[in-house]
Amino acid sequence: DPLGNPAPNLSIGSSSHAEGIGTTASGFASHAEGRETRTFGENSHAEGQNTTTGDAGDPSLGLNAHAEGEGNTATGRASHAEGGAVDQNGNPAPTLASGDSSHAEGVGTTASGFASHAEGGTFDINSVPGPVASGDFSHAEGLITEASGQASHAEGGFNTTASGDFSHAEGVSTEASGNASHAEGGGGIVVFIIDGTITILLLGPRASGDFSHAEGFETEASGEAAHAEGNDTTASGQASHAEGFATTASGNQSHAEGRDTIADGSSSHTEGLNTCANGKTGVHVMGKMVVQPQEIPIFHGISSMVIPLYLVILMV
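Below the sequence we write its predicted structure tokens.
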């Protein structure tokens, strides 16, 4: 090696090839090149520096795998790991492709699901994990993203997670936990640093209902097939829709739009400012309610007395 120490190359596997400095080709028909690279899987290829294909203790791993870059490992069959090197603090941040047919690239990424793909990176591997694609056929990219659901997709940054099967989370601090759900947009991020450990509080759009959709800023769609969009809206009823600012659609098939409106009756519709369906079914409430300071009902956390300025109720 450059310091004068012996660094022989070893071609151990039949039909294997080792070249460079201190490389080892143990797998059948494997190829190790570069510096201190190791190939244990059959027909595998390791290049770069300190890369590994397969596992010395399990000859079934790393078949047809490819590892390149610095410090990376490809143990899945037909997997590919590339990138690696170090984070901004100089800590080793290798990539790992452990799922069969998986692909990991970037800095500190992990692709453990079958046919999964992880790309992106991290600035501090010790406290901020890189993208993780653990679900089969999943895709995670960006910074602090995780796709754990089957065929899920997480992209963006800062705790964006897609845990539902066939879910999609994108943006900043979004979460798609319902099956076939979609969360996109952004929200507030609260970061706690205690004794060097970073904890991130998720405040972005959340789509927890199956087939739900949450988009915008700090929206939540928890009902099945619910849709929440805008700013601080909540759609908890089945097939409900909340849009605007601080609106709530809790009734099944309800629709709340405007500002500080509540559609809590089944098939109800509220719009305007501070309107409420009062749990009635099939009503349409629109207009504006003015605030008087006599009494204290609660509308989205605001203490007030609500008197209708004009109110139209249409029975559907």
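The CA atoms of residues 113 and 134 lie 4 Å apart.
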